[in-house]
Amino acid sequence: MTSTAPTTGGRRVYAVGDIHGHTDALTPLIRALQDDLAGDPVAERPLLVFLGDYFDRGPDSRGVVDMILELEADGPFEVVALKGNHEDALLRVLTDADFGPNWIRNWGRATLRSYGVEVPAPGLEAAETARVQADLQAALPPRHRDFLARCVMSRTVGDYLFVHAGVRPGVALAAQDDKDLMWIRYDFLESEADFGKVVVHGHTPSDAPELRVNRIGIDTGVYYSGVLTAVRLEGTDQRIFQARA
Ligand SMILES: [Mn+2]
Q1: Model's pTM, two decimal places?
Q2: How far is the CA of 51 from the centre of ligand 1 (A)?
Q3: Quick one: 24 exposed, middle or buried, by C-beta within 10 A (0-12, 13-18, 19+)?
Q4: Which of 18, 130, 192, 223 sits a CA distance of 20 to 30 A from 65?
Q5: What domains, with CATH codes, occur in the chain?
Q6: pLDDT digits (tens, 9 = 90+) for 154-182
Q7: Is residue 72 within 8 Å of residue 34, measured between CB atoms?
Q8: How far is the CA of 181 from the centre of ligand 1 (A)?
Q9: Ligand 1 centroid vs 85 CA: distance in angstroms?
């Protein structure tokens, strides 16, 4: 980071915070971004970065992935989908029986329902983990499995680094651990260090977007607030977009 304002170097980037199964908020937010682009076009195709956590909590994880895949296939944006801790967890659930019961109990019920997988009754999560794994394996469309495998850890544009959760202060960006990029909270959030890039992230909800010198946090907790947030970055300009579920 220099003493001058951070810049994308000219490219326009739209970054979208944690969606958690909320197509009801993602639909109007994407429409707002498309309207913005139509009313204020750019020569180079803008990037649309999804900051991760597409699954769990909200009602329509399956629909969120389908929307991102549609935007990838057809539309005015170059789409980048980052990997969040909920994608990390879902990949583990598919293969690690020890991890299954906690995921089903805490995060996964809505995701199972959205894929038509029967949810175990409370208390039966451990007993039914193998059945849930098999059903979920069978219910996940190949294009969704492929999507999970393709999610990336980070993307850099100019002075900005896009990641799901944050970075470990004091560790060079090139040496960061994937686990920190997907899961870190307070060590990152409370740091006033210069990370080398301005970190654009989701993962830890706040009432309002946080536009700081060293980081931009745009997870506004759509699954309880109803508000989904995006930031538009272009040159040194930073602009917030929000939509309600
Ligand atoms: Mn997260």
Answers
A1: 0.97
A2: 9
A3: middle
A4: 130
A5: 12-94+140-244 (3.60.21.10)
A6: 999 999 999 999 999 999 999 999 999 99
A7: no
A8: 10
A9: 5
